[in-house]
Write a structure and sequence with these properties.
Order of helices and strands: EEHEEE
Radius of gyration: 19 Å
Shape: globular
Largest sheet: 3 strands, antiparallel
Number of strands: 5
Strand content: 25-35%
Distance between the termini: 43 Å
Number of helices: 1
Helix content: under 10%
Length: about 100
């Protein structure tokens, strides 16, 4: 279970799945382990498997491509939020919103 940002210098509390990057570390013959980077950290750092097969944080590099295969398993991003746009509900033309009897006035 994920409960905070994996970045040791942050440790923000996990509240929303779309508020950062969720990684999965799939290991042969073992359970998949999940790691989360908060939205602040995922713009600065990313996760990698170190030489011992442990998940570690490294500065985000725009030139680094996919990680080479690792005998300790496969680490990959499961979810990454799309662009951050405010939610707007649109009603198709010709239709009206359902009335709940509640008024903001």
């Amino acid at each position: 279970m994920v409960n905070c940002c994996v970045n040791p210098s942050c440790r923000a509390e996990f509240k929303l799945l779309n508020a950062g990057d969720l990684y999965a570390h799939e290991r042969p013959n073992d359970n998949t382990e999940f790691f989360w980077l908060c939205s602040t950290c995922c713009s600065k750092v990313e996760l990698q498997l170190d030489a011992d097969g442990c998940v570690s944080v490294r500065p985000r590099s725009h030139i680094a491509g996919p990680q080479p295969p690792h005998p300790a398993g496969h680490l990959h991003v499961v979810t990454r939020p799309m662009g951050r746009k405010p939610w707007r509900h649109s009603i198709p033309s010709g239709e009206r919103a359902a009335s709940s009897g509640f008024s903001w006035n």
